[in-house]
Amino acid sequence: GKKFVDIDAEIERSAGKAIPEIFAAEGEDAFRRLEHEIICRVGAEHGQIIATGGGAVTRQENQYSLEQNGRIVWLQRPLEMLPTAGRPLSHKDTLAEMYRSRASLYRCFSDMQISNDGTPDEVAARIAKELYYEIFGH
User: Fold this and answer.
1) d(Cα 132, Cα 66) in Å, to the nearest integer?
2) Which of 133, 19, 28 has the alpha carbon at shortest distance from 87?
3) pTM summary value
4) What is the band of 78 on the pLDDT scale with cuts at 50, 70, 90?
5) Given pLDDT bands bounded at 50, 70 and 90, which one contains residue 81?
6) Cα dihedral sign, 66-58-84-122
7) Which of 56, 66, 105, 123 could bond 52 through an S-S bridge, CB–CB 3.0 to 4.6 Å?
């Protein structure tokens, strides 16, 4: 029942172009600046679920904006299940290399880790269950 906000979709809407086009025309630094601006704006709002791309952890200043109104869940998906189409950095480095370089950042950012190897409904139920146990303890 909460509003869902996809940061990557917001970036594309704000820039008026697809993420691969932003990377090609302006580079990763420009993309990360825009990502940070949108995370700050969206993170200040209440009552929503925010989905970020995996690179949001590369800027420590994103953490406060993401955690100020809720919990950060690290969705742990098997690498072979991750899509690479339309993801510029997935082609620059292998997913395994990116995971190795970011895993400690994901751990630092997240309040909980949830296995994301099922359907969206199954994963949402896992998250809801963990949040329930966190709040009520049983």
Assistant:
1) 20
2) 19
3) 0.84
4) confident
5) confident
6) negative
7) 56
In contact, 112 and 74? CB cutoff 8 Å: yes
Angle in degrees, CA 14, 88, 112, rounded to 5: 80
Give, in order, the Cα–Cα distances in Å from 91 to each of 18, 87, 131. Answer: 16, 7, 35
pLDDT one-digit tens code per residue, 5-35: 999 999 999 999 999 999 999 999 999 999 9
Closest CA to 33 of 66, 67, 61, 63: 61
Residue 66 CA to residue 76 CA, distance in Å, equals 18
DSSP 117: -
Give φ, ψ of 111 to 5 degrees: -95, -25
Rounded to an integer, the average pLDDT of 31-44 is: 96
How far, in Å, CA of 123 to CA of 133, rounded?
Answer: 15
Q: Which residues fall within 8 angstroms of residue 54, CB to CB, at 6 or more apart?
A: 98, 102
Buried b / exposed e over 64-87, threshold 16 CB at 10 Å, is ebbeeebebbbbeeeeeeeeeeeb
